[in-house]
Every structure is written in C-alpha cells, then in structure tokens.
Amino acid sequence: MTKPAALQTTFDPPADSVLWRKDFLIGVATAAYQIEGASEEDGRLPSIWDTFSAIPGKVLHGDTGAVACDHYHRWEEDVELISGLNVDAYRLSIAWPRVMHADGSVNEKGIAFYRQLLARLRAKGLKTFVTLYHWDLPQHLEDRGGWINRETAFRFAEYADLVSRELKGLVDAWSTLNEPWCSAMHGYGTGHHAPGKTDNKLALQAMHHLLLGHGLAMRALRRNDPTSLKGLVANVGRGTTDGDTPADLRAAELFEIQNNDWVLDPLLKQRYPAGLFELWPGTEPEVQPGDMEIIGEPMDYLGINYYFRTNVRSDGAHGYTEMPLEGVERTQMGWEVYPDGLRDLLLGFHRNYANLPPIYITENGTASDDAVVNGEVNDAQRISFLNRHLAAVDEAVKAGVKVRGYFIWSLMDNFEWAFGYERRFGIVHVDYSTQKRTLKRSAHLVRDFLAKRRAQPD
Ligand code: IFM
Fold it and tell me: N or C terminus of the chain: which is more exposed, having fewer CB within 10 Å?
C-alpha cells in the first residue's frame, strides 16, 4: 500500500527553521498503559484496558499491556535513553489506577513511582509534560457507568486534585485529557477501544462528561500548582474531498466538525458545533446549567496530535463517507502521509479561534514495520515523515501560529491499543522478547541534530 517515494534520509532543517531556536521545545512522548506493564504490582487496580484487552478478538494477536515495555521496572534505563537523545522534554501519562485507591485515598507506592521518575527527569534537565488521563479509566468507575455517568467527571477532578498536590513542583506542563475524541468516539461510538460500547448518543454524552471533568480538573490544577502550564491534548484530523459537488464540500466540513470542532468548540467557544447534530440528529448530550463555563476554563496551552488526512465524499444524505485515495504514500497503519494537513489545520485554528492559546504539537509520528538488521534499524520512511511534518510546523509558525514545541510519538515501540505490538511507532526499537532497546536511525539523526543545536551560540 505504501507508495515507494524518494525518502529523505538526513535530518537537516534549513537555517531559518524554527527548529533551530533553542526555545522551541523538542521532545518524545509515551503513555502509561502503552509502556509500563506491571499491571498488578504495588496495588495498581485494574483499568478498562486490562478488561478490554482480555476479551478475545478486541486486540490484534490477543496482546495486552500486562508487560508492555516493562518501563515500570526499567524506568532508570529509560530516563538515560531519553536524556541521551538530547531532547528538551518528555511527555508521559500517569496511570489513575496506579495512584488512587478505590476509596479515593492515595496509593503511596504508585505515587512514589512517578515522584522518583519525574525527579530524575528534572535532574537530567528535561522538562516534564504530564497527562492525567490517557485512556486507562479504573475499572471500578466503569462498573458504575464510566464516562456515561456524570459522577466520573467529579471523580476525575478529585484524582487531579490528589495528583497535583502530591507531584506539585515536578511538572512543567499538565494535560488533563489525552484525545477525548478517541475516548468518547472509539470507547462509546465505534467500540474499537475500551470499554467497547457502540452508540453515537453515548459517545456524545461521554464527551460531555470528559470535557466537564477537564474543566473541573483545570481548577484543581490551578489551585494546587499555580506556576505550571495547564491544558488539554486534542487529536485533530484533516478532512478534504476529491468530489466537486456542494454536498461533497459540505461532507469535508462535516468531517472536520465531527473530528475537531466537537472538542475544540466547547473548549474555546463554550458551545457544541451545530453541524454535529446535523450529522447525528437527536444525539444532543444532557448539559446542566454552568457546565459550558466550566468546560471553557481558560487554558495555558493546547496540545495538538496530528497523524493523517481523510478523503471524504457526501453519503447522499446528511453526512460523509470515507473514500480512500489511491496512489498516495501510507504508513504501517494505512494512514495517508499528508504533512500539509498539519499546516492547514494549524492555520485554520488560528483563524477560527480568537482565544487560541499557544500550541504544542504533543504527538506526531508514524508506524513502520521496523526490524533490527545487523544491530541497526533503518526507518527511512519515519525520517522522511518527521522532516516533512516539522517543515509544515515551521510554515505555520512563519504564518503567525504560536507553536511552542513538538513531541515525537513515540519514544519507543509500545502497545498500540487495538493493534497490540505489531505497529511500531517508536524512534527506539523494542525487542519484546528481551526488552532490548535499539535506537533507530531516526533517533540517531534527531539526537545529532539536537547536539548541533545545543552547541550553537545563544
Ligand atoms: O498510540 C497512540 C496514542 O496513544 C494516542 N495518539 C495516537 C497514537 C498512535 O495511534
């Protein structure tokens, strides 16, 4: 499926690129369930992903996060790995079921793990970007309705309160949620993710409670840790059409309303976009007075995760249907490589939201079928992907969008949710039978570029 392309295999941004600026943060990212393993250790409670991945047929090859990259035991080696890449920052997530008992009290062993990890990262001079919720809801909360239950938003705020009291001073930037679109849509709409429900109306309600939880958590974070940055990480998708009818053009708009505005409008305009209910009539969530003001709590930054573009056409009714383009470059996930989409979305958000906070690209990267050959991993497609997406960010910055940094997804190969361990997103290869980490060629190039940048006079 991947179109053979002339792949760029060096990493050498032009002299006027924002990448050379030392205050433009470059980092790598991971998430707890995808790398930690140790799913039953030190009092960690089961999460919805432990339950979901144990159901036959839900995850490719029956993979689970029980061991993953064994980061819980290998964190010291992994901090050395990150620090050796010369990056400025590391983005990680905290496992809610590891740090909070079911009665709401702190699990001392769980919080101690993150305290020592964050302290070591800081000691190495790395900035810490910490996500509170990257999809691993404690199972006991799912048993009471999960994100369909309004109460979960309040439990989330209590969790944010506890963690920010415990870890205050060790975090440079907090993110409340990672990709609420995926939690709501894949968790409750398509059912591809835990907890595996399949009803768009539930997805709309889950989204409302996720966003309400975000707003309540923002207030707790601000109270407990006033000097850190606070925000949310949203995944966004570019939707275009190769059709030429007004209905096709509207289909592309509806795609972006569903994928982007559904999350960004409530956060930045305190309302859901009307087009969402044009697409899915009768799915309006229950909203209580005051909810939208809580959701619209001002953010210090917005995290943007971008991966690909989707081509759509009108479905002949009120919606869109996906029409994959032929002859385009695709990744191991089957996703189209489309760097212009990142630039265009950033420019669009800049135009559309007067109160858009500064942006960090909190995830961007690609999966490829990488293997170690004679001790080396030549991930040419990833090198080309990173070069072109970073160039797109540079274009957006030059056009006036305030982008402050960029995180590669991911530091290392890990548990790619419903695709298990088959899909490799890391710039570091992981051999899951030995847990050996091997720097891919992309990691060598990023490391060497950042060493050169550091050596430049200020
Ligand atoms: O691996 C995921 C990550 O957890 C969330 N954003 C997208 C990545 C690639 O699918």
Answer: C
Tens digits of residue pLDDT in 9-21: 789 899 999 999 9
Q: Atom 4 in ligand 1: which residue has the minimum CA distance?
A: 31
pLDDT at 4 exceeding the cut of 60: no
Distance 455 CA to ligand 1 centre (A): 33
Question: Can you give the pLDDT at residue 8?
Answer: 72
363 included as an active-site residue: yes
pLDDT tens digits for range 15-66: 999 999 999 999 999 999 999 999 999 999 999 999 999 999 999 999 999 9
> Residues with Cβ < 8 Å from 39, sequence gap 6 or more?
46, 47, 50, 64, 65, 66
Ligand 1 midpoint to CA 341 (Å): 18
Q: Is the CB of 416 under 6 A from ligand 1?
A: yes
Torsion of CA 64, 70, 75, 79, to 10 degrees: -80
Query: How far apart are the C-alpha atoms of 181 and 234, rounded to whole Å?
Result: 7
CA of 420 to the centre of ligand 1 (A): 12
User: Per residue in 422-455, pLDDT tens?
Assistant: 999 999 999 999 999 999 999 999 999 999 999 9
Which among 409, 410, 415, 422 is the best mutation to test ligand 1's pocket, defined by most ligand atoms within 8 Å of the CB?
Answer: 409
Q: What is the pLDDT of residue 46?
A: 98
Query: Is residue 195 reached through a cis peptide bond, with omega within 30 degrees of 0 on the bond before it?
Result: yes
Average pLDDT over every residue of 336-360: 98
Which residue is it, tokens 């293997």? 371
- C-alpha span between 218 and 230 (Å, rounded): 7
Whose tokens are 């944010």? That residue is 160
**How many other C-beta atoms can be found within 10 angstroms of the C-beta atom of residue 439?**
20
From the CA of 215, how far away is ligand 1's center (Å)? 23
Tell me if 184 sits within 8 A of 204, measured CB to CB. Answer: yes
Catalytic hit among 36, 297, 336, 363:
363
Active site residue 284: no
Residues near 56 by Cβ (< 8 Å), separated by ≥ 6? 62
Task: Answer yes or no: is pLDDT of 340 > 80.
Answer: yes
Catalytic-role residue among 179, 256, 336, 395: 179
